[in-house]
Structure formats: C-alpha cells, structure tokens
Amino acid sequence: MRILVVEDYSPVRNAVVQSLREDGHSVDEAADGTQGLAAAAHTPYDVLVLDLMLPGTNGLEVLRRLRAQGVESQVLILTARDAVEDRVKGLDLGADDFLTKPFAMEELRARVRALLRRAYGKKKPVLTIGHLELDMASRRARVDGDAIELTAREYALLEYLALRAGEVVTRTDIWTHLYDETSDSTSNVVDVYIGYLRKKIERPDRPRLLVTRRGEGYVLDAGGAA
Amino acid sequence: MNSIRARLNLGILVVLALVFVGGGWAVIRSLRAGMEREVERSLYAFLRSEAGPILHDLLPLGGPPPRGPRFEEGELRRPLFGRPDGPLGREPLRDPAQRTDFVYQVWRDTSSRRSLILETELPRVAAELEVVDFEALRPGVGTCLDLVLELQGERLPARALAVRFRAPERPGAPRERPLAPVLELVVARPTREVEQTLAAARRVLLLAGGIGLAAASLLLLGVVRRGLRPLEDLRRTLATLDTAQLGAGLGLADPVRELQPVVAQLEALLRRVQGEMRREQSFSADAAHELRTPLAGIRATLEVLLARQREPEAYERGARESLAIARQMQALVERLLVFARERGTARLEVAELDVSEALERAWGTFSERARGRGLRLEATLERPAALRTDPRLLERVLSNLVENAVCHADADGTVEASLRREAGGIRLLLSNAARAATPETAERAFDAFWRADPARAAVGEHAGLGLSLCQRVVEELGGHVRARAEEGRFTIELELPDLDPPAPARGSPEARG
User: Fold this and answer.
1) Would you say A210 and A220 are in contact if contact means Cβ atoms under 8 Å apart?
2) Cβ–Cβ < 8 Å for A162, A134
3) What's this model's pTM, rounded to 2 decimal places?
4) Sign of the alpha-carbon dihedral angle for B420, B423, B425, B427
5) How far apart are alpha carbons A71 and A43 in whole angstroms?
6) A160-172 tens-digit pLDDT
7) Are the beta carbons of B374 and B383 closer than 8 angstroms?
8) What tens digit of pLDDT does each residue of A140-185 get?
9) Relative to the CA of B102, which of B65, B163, B346, B366 has its CA 20 to 30 Å away?
10) Any bridge partners for residue A129, and if so which?
11) Are the CB atoms for A96 and B287 separated by under 8 Å?
C-alpha cells in the first residue's frame, strides 16, 4: 500500500519509513509540511502518517488543506502532545487516528493496517476469496488451508488485489499503490509479479482466482472466469 | 500548654478564682470593719456608763461611796451587770452567762504605778493622747488598738480603747480650785465572737466559691468548645480540600470575624500555591513534551533495528544514531534542570540590574565559541541601562539568547546588539546573520526551536530548549520577546519593564498578564 510519512525529526521518520517498507508498503517521506502537502496532493496515498509539529506548514494546517482539496487518504497523526484538545482538534479536522510519541512501532504498524482495512471498507482482518485466505495481521496467505510462501512484494500485490476483490484493478492503480518514488522498475514488472502470484495461488482443481482483463487490468474474484 | 481551649479554660478559671477570692476578701473585710466599729461603739458606751463610778472611787467627788469594793488605781477590772465588780481573778464569775467581756484599767496621769495583779496588763498608750474633757468623751476620741488578752489562761484577741481625760468639774466648786486631775483609761473587750463570725462567713464563702467555681468551669468547658467551633469547621474544611481546586477558595459561608483575616490569608496562599502548581505542571508537561520526540526517535530506531536479523553495519548505524539522540536528550535534561533550579524560588526577587553589563558578561561566557566560529560582537549599548527586575532570571535569559545567537549565526559574521533604556523599561535587539532563516523559523523559534534545524538536532549538538523557556521567563518578568527573520538576519527583540517592588507572586494571574 502507498504511504506518506511526514515527519521533520529524522530518527523517527527514518525508522517509521523503514519499518513500513519492511512490511511491504511503498513509502514516501517528507521532512516538512510544505513538501508533505505537495506530495499528498498529487499522489492518492492510502495512508498519511503526519507529525503535528512541523516546520513550514504545521500538521493540522496540512491536514486542513488536504481535506479542503478533497484528499481522501486515511490520516494517522503523530504527536508529542497528548492534550485532549489537540486530539479533538485533529480528529475534527479530518484525522482518522492518533498516536502519541513515543510509540511502539508495532502499534504504529497495526494502526496503519487498521486504517488500510478501513480505507477499503473491510472490517475483518482475514480476507477470503474462494479457496484463498489472506490474514492481514500476520501477513500470511493460505490456499486451501496450506500456507504459501510470498515475498513482501508479492504479498503487497495480493493484498491490494484482495482488498479490491471483484473490481478491475488497472496496472496504473497497482503501480501507484505499490511502488514508491524510490522504485525504478518498469511497468511490466507488474505483469511479472502477477505471473508469480498466479503460480502460487491457483490450483488446477479449483476455479481461477486471478483473471486478466485484457486492456483493462486484473480481477481477483472467487467467481473466477466470470 | 499548646491548646487554645486549655489556655482559655485555665485563663478564665484563674480570673473567676481571682474574682471569688477578691470578692470574698472584700466581704470579709467589710464584715470585719462593721463588727469592729460595733465593738468600738460598745467600748465608748461602756466608757460613758462606767466612768462615773470609777471617778467616784478615784476622786473624792462627794456623796455616798457606791457599794462593793472600791476601785484602785491601776487595777484591771471587769464590771458585772455594767457595774464595777471585784478585781478580776480574785472573785470567780458567778454566772458565765452574765459575764461581760469588758476589762478596764485606770491611771492618774502623773502616776507611774504598774499593776501586776493579773496575768496581763493593758498598755498605757493613753499617755501619748491629747487630754479631753470628760463631757467631750464620744466616738472618735482616744485611740483604738488590737491586743491579746490573757484571761484565766486563755489568750484572746481583743480590741481596746484608750482615752485621756480630765475629770468633770463639780458643779458649784470654787473657781480658784486647782485644775481637775487627768486620768488615763484603757477599756478592752475580747473580739473572739467577731473572729468566730468571720470564720463562719469565710467558710460559707469558701464553700460557695468552690461550688461556684466548679459549676463555672463545667459551663466554661461547653462555652469554650462552642466558641472554638469555627476553628474546628475550618480544620474540617481544610482536611477535605480538593487539591485540584485550591484557587476556588475554602467555600466557608460567612466565617466568624476573628477568622476572616486568617481565611483570607489562607485563601490567598492557596491561590499562590495553585498558581505554582499550575506553573510546575505546565513546566513538567513541556519538559515531557520536549523529551517525547527524541525518546520516540530512540525507540523507533531500536525497534526497527531489532525487528529482524540485519547486517552488522545496520546495527552500528542504529547504535550511533541512538547514542546521538541520547546525548541530545541529556543536554535537554540538563537544560531543564538548570531552569528548574533557577525557577526554584516562588517569587521574583526584584533588584536593580545594569542590563548592559549583564549582556557583556553573557557575551564573555560564549566569546571563545564565538571566536571559534569567526563571530564578532557589534554592540551599541546605552549605559548604564539599569532595570528593576529579577537579576538571576534575566541573566539566564540573556545567556540563552547570546548562546542561541552564537550557535546559530552563520559563521564569520557579526552579532549585533543594541540596548536602549526606554520609558519604564529597556529594549534589546540581538541579531545575527542567518541566511537559512525564514519567517517560519522566526515564527516557530519559541516553541520547538531545536527542530528548526533537524540536521543539528539529530547529532545532539544543541538541545534548543533555550528559547522556549526564555520566552516563558520573559513573560514572567512582565516583558515580551519576539523573533523575526528578514534580509538574511535573525533578530530577537526583547522588551522588559521595570518591576515594582514588591513583585507580584509568580504564577499568579496578574504576573502572567
């Protein structure tokens, strides 16, 4: 999933970015409010991790302007202040969640996962598409109950398709949501990964799950060829 | 005795006892005076009625001599039924009920004869008295004295009357007759009854007094306890006081007048304490806030590092980064401690400070570092620039401002200081070259300075808490501090007023203004 981390204090920013990348997310970073605002305005991030005390434009202002521009990303606010009024103000300005510094990285990752589920309208942490089962908490996939080995990249792709199960997902969508600014791959890398995924999740005795719609994109659906 | 109740009880009891004793003494005293007057009156009455027969015996006044033994000069006698009887002791009293207690003794003026007939003898004090005529004998003539009579083996307190008088002229006596002889007469009467009556009165008074005192002290306990109830109410109020609501007052409905000043002072004290507490709380909150971000940095760095197996270089990088942040936190904590100490006293200690000298001292502290960075000070200081303020706090502020300028100025430039004395205060401008400074840098200089320069903050060189605390101290000193960045220079503007001694309590709403 595509995530933007806006945080001016580099130790925290670096650690958050690295941790989220290791979870398979594509993460962009911004060191001040102005940069963050510019990035979030032209990329449809799934989640924004936003520090409140930012040089340039402060976090609340960034949030206000983004919501004013109609940006729908889930926003997780990081703050060193735990005053209730700060949180209320942030939530009222359109934030989706709050985390007070110092925080446990595990909690931040879990909150990001929860926000992602919310972004795609899912409540259950386990997604089931036919004989495929995807556990978003442990980041594991099972086919017919058997665990399958997936790289972080493969898992991310599968998760994205699963979250949008039944919809046609374009290559551009995949590209935007799974590759960050640091990626230098070409767009046919998506097709390559789709191929890897098919091999791992399809079973000969089962209907096809991952269908290519020529000229449109891909659909992950229990209905298979439908 | 460390109790108001005990003191009041004892004090009032002592006063009551004094009143009883004094009153009793006065009663006894007036009783005694009345009875003594009565005794004296009876002595005069005796004198007037008995002097006749005595004179008859002692002076040849003509007429038949009275019956009974003649009266001899100097004899101590006791009359029976108001008449002279035999010498005392020679003749036993026939009927004790008829006994009169008077005894008397008479001398001729010129006589030196002493009577030793009885165990006792009345004193011849009359010799010192003025001679009066017999007809002039009446209360007030002669002198009264107390003595002890020894009669029949008993020692009795007695009262005596002594007079010196001239015998009456016989009617029809020749004019050429020499003057009538002068007689001295002392009459005494035991006052045992007086003493007995007084003793009885004393007993009654003592008894009444004792009972009265006991009853009064019982009443007193109740009255004092009742009187001290407002104190107890105050205690109870204080015991149940909500520490979060100290400034709201004690909520005592209409405290008694004696407690009003105490309650007022107490409420003022509580307001001050609450101000202090609020100040401390916000200081701690700020401190915690300042520490949270670097703490988050360390925690996040280490958690990511340990989340999986990594290359040795990654561990080294993480360790170095954590160490740098730890150093930065240490600097932050030390700075916080310095400020906590500086702010240890609850009140501003107002004194006069020459700000120009203080500024130069502050520059002196950092001059070496300034030289190292190629910085020069260009100062236009009005001197003296005396200001009534809290010198310790202001010196701390100046030191922080100068340190900030020295650390953050672009190298090889000037730090400009201009100090002017203005009506009611001073105005200080401190500016340094800072090409990177933006209006936003200035805007945020006071709340999170150390993050305006993340590169430097990350290596822990400067904790940067200085300016935000400076601003707070300056506000406590009643002044303003502002920052602006224009044309590549970062300028701090400081305005401070003269404070009135006595200073307002720090942390009170007035002081915060």
Assistant:
1) yes
2) yes
3) 0.55
4) negative
5) 9
6) 999 998 889 988 8
7) no
8) 899 888 889 988 888 888 999 999 988 899 888 888 888 877 776 6
9) B65
10) A132
11) no
**Cα of A152 to nearest chain B Cα, Å:** 14
Using the Cβ of A18 and the Cβ atoms of chain B, whether some distance falls under 8 Å is answered with yes
Token pair in block for residue B263: 């309650």
Identify which has the larger pLDDT, B219 or B341. Answer: B219
Q: Is A44 on the interface with B (CB under 8 A)?
A: no
Coil vs helix vs strand at B375: coil
Residue B400, φ and ψ in degrees, nearest 5: -70, -40
Angle at B340 between CA B334 and CA B345, to 5 degrees: 150
Between CA B413 and CA B432 the distance in angstroms is 8
Residues of B in contact with A102 (CB under 8 A): 292, 295-296, 298-300
Residue of B nearest to A51 (CA): B293
Per-residue pLDDT tens over the stretch B48-94: 777 766 666 666 555 555 555 556 666 666 654 434 444 444 344 44
DSSP string, B482-510: EEEEETTEEEEEEEEEPPPSSPPBTTSHH
To test the contact with chain B by mutation, choose from A5, A6, A9 the residue with the greatest count of B C-beta atoms within 10 A, namely A9
CA distances from B216 to B8, B33, B220, B291 (A): 13, 30, 6, 69
List residues bridging with B352 in a β-sheet: B388
A203: helix, coil or strand?
Answer: coil
**Inter-chain residue contact A102 with B289, CB threshold 8 Å:** no
Residue B420, both tokens: 């002017």
